[in-house]
Amino acid sequence: MKLRYQDTFFGFLWSLIRPLLQGAVLFVVLRKFIRIDVPDYHLVLLAGLFPWTWFQTSLVIAVASFASNGALIKKVYFPRFVLPLATVMNNGVQYALSIPVLVLLLLIGGYTPNWTWLVGIPYLLVVEALLIMGIVLFIASLDVYFRDLEHLTDVFVGLIWFYLTPVIYPLSLVPQKYHAWVLLNPMASLIEGWRALFLRNQLPGADMWPALLFAGAIAAVGAFSFRTMQGGFADAL
């Protein structure tokens, strides 16, 4: 984090400024222009945007973790998985440090956190970290051999997955007949889990099963792919 923000005036605050500015722009466009009629829409938006930023930023940056560190991988032995893990955890820490900002806005809006946060936040952090790390290990391992994956990931996550996930809109605005399909998206159930915790003090329920199932499966696939392919990293880079 020191390296990332060195020689900048605002330092760590940049990690908060970006999602807050993005949230402000989306709020104006969607609430004032398109007129999405959702109570406390600014809180609904940020409760989804903050955890999504962790997910998107980690995937876009960490997908090149192995391919962009070829010289280091060839020069010295170390556990290779720490390269993407460092990026995922770095962004996870930034997300955790942004939660107090959301808490302040919730308090201003009349919301009061309770004991459920003590259980819900660590639980959701672990699930999201597992989900991100599994996807990153799988794609980053393949990226050593197929560099187009960096660009495909950026396009897919930023332009397709983002709009298929209820980040800028709550699930309640999606017609009921599509709810089951939307919730098959692991990030959809995860974002709704964060919203339920932040806005209603509700612990994640049965609707979280897609995120749990996918996180466990992709973690296993990612670990297997990494262990299978890492032996050829030095030759391919």
Tell me about this structure.
The protein is mainly alpha-helical. The chain has one domain. Helix content is 71%, strand content 0%. The protein is built from eleven helices and no strands. Helix 3 packs parallel to helix 6 (116-143) and helix 6 packs antiparallel against helix 9. It is globular and about 55 Å long. The chain starts with a helix and ends with a helix. The mean pLDDT is 85.
Which helices and strands, and how do they pair?
Elements: H1 2-5, H2 14-33, H3 41-62, H4 70-75, H5 82-108, H6 116-143, H7 148-164, H8 179-182, H9 186-200, H10 209-229, H11 233-236
Helix pairs in contact: 2-3, 3-5, 3-6, 3-7, 3-9, 5-6, 6-7, 6-9, 6-10, 9-10
Quickly count the domains. 1
Reported for the largest beta sheet, the result is:
none
Q: How much of the residues is beta strand, in percent?
A: under 5%
Q: Count of DSSP E strands?
A: 0
Mass-distribution shape: globular
Q: Which structural category fits the helices and strands?
A: mainly alpha
- Average pLDDT rating: 85
The rounded Rg comes to 19 Å
Low-confidence stretches: none
**What is the string of SSEs from the N terminus onward?**
HHHHHHHHHHH
Tally of individual helices: 11
Q: Helicity, in percent?
A: over 70%
* First-to-last CA distance: 26 Å
Short summary of the structure?
The chain has 237 residues and is mostly helical. 71% of the residues lie in helices and 0% in strands. It contains eleven helices and no strands.
Keywords:
single chain; 237 residues; mainly alpha
